[in-house]
Write a structure and sequence with these properties.
By secondary structure, this protein is mostly helical. Helix content is 49%, strand content 0%. It has one helix and no strands. The longest helix is centred in the N-terminal third of the chain and has 25 residues, at 2-26. The chain is elongated, with a radius of gyration of 17 Å. The model has no long low-confidence stretch (mean pLDDT 78).
């Protein structure tokens, strides 16, 4: 019974985190620091690298 409650709590936490990330993405918020010159993944961010 305890395992069920722990699993339920973990599922709820993951769901809340996912919803928060989706909401931030829709509002244009990003975890990006804005320094594209030093970003390894800049080709997929902001429409390309801007050095």
């Amino acid at each position: 019974m305890g395992t069920f409650f722990v699993a339920l709590i973990l599922i709820a936490i993951v769901t809340l985190i996912s919803l928060s990330l989706i909401r931030d993405k829709k509002q244009g918020k990003s975890s990006c620091g804005g320094n594209c010159g030093s970003c390894a993944g800049c080709a997929g961010c902001h429409g390309g690298c801007k050095e």
